[in-house]
Amino acid sequence: MKIPVNKFIVNVLLIAILTAASPLYLLAQNKLMGEVVITKTSAKGFVTINGERVVSGRSIMATSEIATSPQASAKVLFPPTGSVLIEPNTNLNLSFTNAGISGDLISGKITVQTAPNTTLNFLTPDGVITLPVVNQSNILKITVENKRTFLQTLTGQVSINNVLVSEGEYYPAATSDNTNSGKPVNNNSKSSSISPLLILGVLGALGVAALVALSASGGNNSDTPIISPTR
To answer: Are strands 100-114 and 119-124 parallel, antiparallel or unpaired?
Structure first.
């Protein structure tokens, strides 16, 4: 009887170990290794991950706090999901799995590219950015400046604060010509209507001309009759 009992105990322990290890194993599979590619504009440029300066080619795991100096940018690559380009002078908390990208953009600018069937959830000081449609590729630019969010959709569709921003559109629409949103400033500000200042100038010139003409005609009016010369 001792041998069957021992086998039973071993089997129970084995099942318990496998049961406890399975969630950890699945969680490890959901975590994704990314690669950081750093570009510097000067020797002073640097990128930090969780407060530590790193070099190009460094592996990264979710979740990480990434900061770039004004002279450096970083691109985080994770091919099954997409990529995030972090521009200079940016602070970002980034998280990702093999099914989605999420993060908290505190300040600065990023460009996010997602592969099909990838979810997105980004927080900003005044907004929440998600993808209404995930079965397509999406490219978007997010800028946070003075705790305000500016968004540009290059491809696909993006939702911010339940506002749909389609391909080629900007958020907020009321300030779409703001350079922070990435939209070129419209320099063709000339209007087809006549400027009010131009109208006032023309009226003033006409008034002066009328006064001069009236004064000249008044100088010729006298009480002396005009006598024709004798022929």
So the answer is: parallel
3-state DSSP call for residue 88? coil
Please choose, from the candidates 118, 108, 128, the residue with its C-alpha nearest in 3D space to the C-alpha of residue 156: 118
Alpha helices for 95-220 (secondary structure H): 196-220
What are the tens digits of pLDDT across the range 140-181?
999 999 999 999 999 999 999 999 999 999 999 854 444 444
Sign of CA dihedral 195, 197, 202, 203: positive
Burial of 12 (0-12, 13-18, 19+ CB in 10 A): exposed
Contact 89, 47 (CB under 8 A): no
Residue type, 43: A
pTM for the whole structure: 0.64
Distance, in Å, from the CA atom of 86 to the CA atom of 66, rounded to the nearest integer, reads 9
Q: What is d(CA 73, CA 55) in angstroms, rounded to the nearest whole number? A: 12
Q: What are the structure tokens assigned to 61, written together?
A: 């795991």
Q: Which tens digits make up the pLDDT trace of 171-203?
A: 998 544 444 444 443 444 444 445 555 666 656
Tokens of 188: 């063709």
One-letter identity of residue 192? S
